[in-house]
Amino acid sequence: MSNKILIVDDEKLMRISLESQLKKEGYDVSSVDNANEGMSLIRSEEFDIVVTDLRLPNMNGMELLKEIKNYNPDIIVVIMTAYGTLESAVAATKEGAYDYIAKPFSTDELIIKLQRALQHKNTTAEVTRLRREIQSEFEFHNIVGSSHAMKKLIETVKEISDRDSTILIQGESGTGKEKIAGAVHYHSGRKMGPFIRVSCAALNREILESELFGHEKGSFTGAIKTRRGRFELANGGSIFLDDVDDIPLDMQVKLLRVIQERTFERVGGEKTLSINVRIICATKKDLLLLAKKGEFREDLFYRLNVVPITIPPLRERKDDIPRLINYFLKKFVSRHEDALPGVSRETLNVLMEYNWPGNVRELENVIEHAVAFSHSHGITIDTLPDYLKRVEIHKKLISMDLSNTQTIQLHDVLTEVEKRLIEWAHQKTNGNQVKMAEILGIPRTTLRNKLVRLK
């Protein structure tokens, strides 16, 4: 589809000539001789660009520009002007005009400006589309859960999003800390600003300092040019520091200053920079416990812990698993398929029984795997990763059907059942032997002996 252009000029010869030449270039062109007719056309049709003269009868080009921008700010306006009114054309660009062109001009000169304007419009539209796409990822309906803990968490996020308080999100790996941080940002007054994410665990000390605060040219080997850090890039928006517990102690002093004063210097720099940024941090560790051990600054902990948010692990909210399964099925099943695949009762029992050490992220990966292997048979045990198929084996060993069994080696079966039960306890407690002994109902010394024997 060709781009639509409207020409507004009371000089008949100029207007007709431009319309004719632009049509030859493949544009869909309309033209009028006054601003009132121009606005009528704009309200009845969709135009990409309006090319208007500054001097028009009744309503001038500047007034038309303001009318257009009030009606639809996405329409690009290019101002035509005589040399004597260039100052007015510059003023028009400050009012929202994309560009201006001085008469007399060649058609080629105008076409170049139009091409640039359309490229700018397409780029802006793509940026807007991507922003909406990213923002939709962090809508509240994408934080799946109807358990009491999740309802309370969502209520907290809604309540504090539009404040500028520093937030500390605590939760195991895979629980969705980044999704919560994004929900806070995109439901705040800063949502049109940047949302900058930093994984503190993924960077060594030297790189981390430069990543956070930037560096000056020549400040260290390889610093061939000045580079802005993540805090500068986040100015006007939010910065999300994941695994904040991995920031070295000596660098924590600098982070503390940023939180308190919103100022810092780049690595190797002397100029103090000021920023307006909201700080959201996340950790999978107990920061207060680390502070008591001297492994994390206690004063920094209290600065970060203004609004604490704790995300429960999936094993503590298993009632949410069916909802999450349905959510991920919608994500991974092709939009061309008529309906979501069914999940067998046997498969759901396995997914409900499993302890999910990788939390929601692990469940997401499992459902993606299952969809890839489901074909037309739905989600069954056979579509699950191999390690989850063994969860069902545990169940069969404990509740055996012996109706068709003639003989059995009691010692071997008991040994196998004992082994499976200990594996189950290990999974449920993440290997904590005190808790393993407790849920198995045996003394810890007995558990140790069995672990040694089963190795």
TrEMBL record:
Protein name per its UniProtKB record: Acetoacetate metabolism regulatory protein AtoC
Domain Sigma-54 factor interaction stretches: 143-372
Annotated organism of origin: Kuenenia stuttgartiensis
Taxon lineage: Bacteria, Pseudomonadati, Planctomycetota, Candidatus Brocadiia, Candidatus Brocadiales
Boundaries of every Response regulatory domain copy: 4-118
Pfam families xrefs: AAA_lid_14, HTH_8, Response_reg, Sigma54_activat
One GO MF term attached to the UniProt entry: sequence-specific DNA binding
CDD domains, per database record: AAA (cd00009)
Keywords, alphabetical: ATP-binding, Nucleotide-binding, Phosphoprotein, Transcription, Transcription regulation, Two-component regulatory system
